[in-house]
RNA sequence: GCGUCGGUGGCAGAGCGGUCAAUUGCACGAGACUGUAAAUCUCGCGCCCUUUGGGCUACGGGGGUUCGAAUCCCUCCCGGCGCA
């Protein structure tokens, strides 16, 4: 087995485990650093290693365009190409069906603040992604050219990119989509899941394929999806693990996750796609998730929003100009060990490149450190205490 | 000294009789960011009042012309350039 559960939390769905890949073992729960275009923006792989990152996630859609999966394949695969020795994974491009489709220029993200916040789109620009039964037609955001991704094509590209773990091609729906659309999209995503799995088996390689559970915010659909994706099992076997994708509001990030994880096979890893903020990760771990990826730590860092035990702070605020203390006193990261808020504030104001690097180091270390502590708490049997302590101190 | 061009909000720089408290950029202040079209985007940015509203002070100083001036005229001060 490629996944071993070491310890289950007695009071929740949480578990600590080990995921084996050809490029090393991953101790879970773990945060996967996002390297969309084969780079974690502003960091070298050595920096990633130093801050405890165990795995990196690239994106099929982006790598297909830049530099092209053929280049990555010829380079020896994603890890070799980007000089990352550890485990890698790629997203299928399914998220871009959402971000370039339903969400395109609508100010919608995968986490909706409130469901009443739906924007009416009288001035909507035509989306760059259009979904059909066959797949998703994208207009390249780079040059406008048209490209069709089908489940088969996505798997083929991911095979060429060569990450250790790849994902089924799915549709990430908008948090504002109707229940009826969620139902329709879910059925299609399930068909695509089977097609992805069949294609993957044909290619005969060592990659692990994760199926993706969708279903929006509807409990019935989420549970149906967990049963279907968890049970899809052609002659050559089912998925090697699961992604939990799609639309949420802040509050049901963890509730919907719980519905799903109660039903998914326990002996396979579960990756909560695109989540999240520290508080989300704490709650989702409690609800049985093993892996996470999210752009938030790195993007926030580049935008000057830094994590502390007390919540996020904006290093651009005037009050930090002469603050000669680290972002967080007890942080063990390179940035906090060597630089003051005043210096970081200066770098950001001066638009120096090092600003993004130092901030990214800190934010990623913060999130990774959080997952390390969560894992330790599960192994100790103190998860519930840890959670309460963390969330009380951390102001969203 | 003569001639000439110019002096606009923290800076640069539009405006050249009313729709100007004044385009725009930067700076400044704040906010957002969840499988990355993001080192990005949004909002604010003379003072005062609770307002989509109103009042006050403002475009080097002073004085005029006009119903009305940052915009026209006179004068003074200051700067660039040219000639002495």
UniProtKB/TrEMBL annotation:
Q: What keywords sit in the KW lines?
A: Glycosyltransferase, Metal-binding, Queuosine biosynthesis, Transferase, tRNA processing, Zinc
The keyword Transferase belongs to this UniProt entry's keyword annotation: yes
* InterPro entries recorded: ArchSynthase1/Queuine_TRR, TGT, TGT-like_sf, tRNA_ribo_trans-like
Q: What Pfam families does the record point to?
A: TGT (PF01702)
Q: Does the keyword Transferase apply?
A: yes
* Domain of life from the UniProt record: Bacteria
Which cofactors? Zn(2+)
Enzyme nomenclature, EC number: 2.4.2.29
For the ligand (substrate), the binding residues are 91-95, 170, 214, 246
Q: In which pathway does it act?
A: tRNA modification; tRNA-queuosine biosynthesis
Which positions fall inside the tRNA-guanine(15) transglycosylase-like domain? 13-395
Q: Which reaction does it catalyse?
A: 7-aminomethyl-7-carbaguanine + guanosine(34) in tRNA = 7-aminomethyl-7-carbaguanosine(34) in tRNA + guanine
Where Zn(2+) is bound, by residue?
331, 333, 336, 362
One function term, GO molecular function aspect: metal ion binding
| SUPFAM superfamilies in alphabetical order | tRNA-guanine transglycosylase
The record's Gene Ontology biological-process terms are: tRNA queuosine(34) biosynthetic process
Cofactor binding mode and count: Binds 1 zinc ion per subunit.
Q: Which GO terms describe its cellular component?
A: cytoplasm
Q: What does the record give as the active site?
A: 91 (proton acceptor), 293 (nucleophile)
Renumbered residue ranges of the record's region RNA binding? 274-280, 298-302
Tell me, how does this one assemble?
Answer: Homodimer. Within each dimer, one monomer is responsible for RNA recognition and catalysis, while the other monomer binds to the replacement base PreQ1.
Protein purpose = Catalyzes the base-exchange of a guanine (G) residue with the queuine precursor 7-aminomethyl-7-deazaguanine (PreQ1) at position 34 (anticodon wobble position) in tRNAs with GU(N) anticodons (tRNA-Asp, -Asn, -His and -Tyr). Catalysis occurs through a double-displacement mechanism. The nucleophile active site attacks the C1' of nucleotide 34 to detach the guanine base from the RNA, forming a covalent enzyme-RNA intermediate. The proton acceptor active site deprotonates the incoming PreQ1, allowing a nucleophilic attack on the C1' of the ribose to form the product.
Family in the record: Belongs to the queuine tRNA-ribosyltransferase family.
Among HAMAP family, the record links this protein to: Q_tRNA_Tgt (MF_00168)
Question: Under what name is this protein listed?
Answer: Queuine tRNA-ribosyltransferase
Species of the source: Candidatus Vogelbacteria bacterium RIFOXYD1_FULL_51_18
């Amino acid at each position: 087995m490629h996944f071993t559960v070491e310890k289950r939390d007695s009071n929740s769905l949480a578990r600590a485990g080990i995921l084996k890949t050809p490029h090393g073992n991953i101790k879970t729960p773990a945060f996967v650093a996002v390297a969309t275009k084969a780079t974690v923006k502003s960091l070298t792989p050595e920096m990633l290693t130093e801050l405890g990152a165990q795995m990196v996630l690239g994106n099929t859609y982006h790598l297909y365009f830049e530099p092209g999966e053929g280049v990555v394949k010829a380079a020896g695969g994603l890890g070799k190409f980007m000089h990352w020795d550890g485990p890698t994974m790629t997203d299928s491009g399914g998220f871009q069906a959402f971000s370039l489709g339903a969400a395109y220029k609508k100010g919608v993200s995968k986490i909706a603040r409130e469901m009443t916040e739906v924007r009416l789109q009288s001035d909507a620009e035509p989306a760059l992604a259009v979904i059909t039964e066959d797949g998703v037609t994208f207009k390249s955001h780079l040059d406008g050219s048209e490209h069709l991704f089908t489940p088969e094509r996505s798997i083929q590209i991911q095979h060429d990119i060569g990450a250790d773990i790849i994902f089924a091609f799915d549709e990430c729906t908008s948090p504002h989509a109707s229940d009826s659309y969620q139902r329709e999209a879910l059925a299609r995503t399930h068909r695509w899941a089977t097609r992805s799995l069949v294609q993957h088996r044909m290619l005969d390689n060592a990659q692990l394929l994760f199926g993706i559970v969708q279903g929006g915010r509807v409990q019935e659909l989420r549970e149906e999806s967990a049963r279907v994706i968890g049970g899809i099992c052609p002659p050559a076997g089912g998925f090697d693990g699961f992604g939990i994708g799609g639309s949420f509001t802040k509050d049901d990030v963890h509730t919907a996750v719980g519905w799903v994880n109660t039903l998914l096979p326990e002996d396979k890893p579960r990756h909560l796609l695109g989540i999240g903020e520290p508080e989300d990760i704490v709650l989702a771990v409690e609800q049985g998730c093993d892996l996470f990826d999210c752009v938030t730590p790195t993007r926030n860092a580049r935008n000057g929003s830094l994590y502390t035990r007390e919540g996020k702070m904006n290093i651009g605020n005037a009050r930090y100009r002469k603050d000669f203390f680290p972002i967080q006193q007890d942080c063990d990261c390179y940035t906090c060990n060597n630089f003051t808020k005043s210096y970081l504030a200066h770098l950001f104001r001066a638009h120096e490149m090092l600003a993004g690097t130092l901030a990214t180091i800190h934010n990623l270390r913060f999130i990774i450190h959080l997952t390390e502590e969560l894992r330790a708490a599960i192994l100790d049997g103190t998860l519930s205490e840890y959670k309460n302590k963390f969330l009380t101190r951390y102001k969203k």
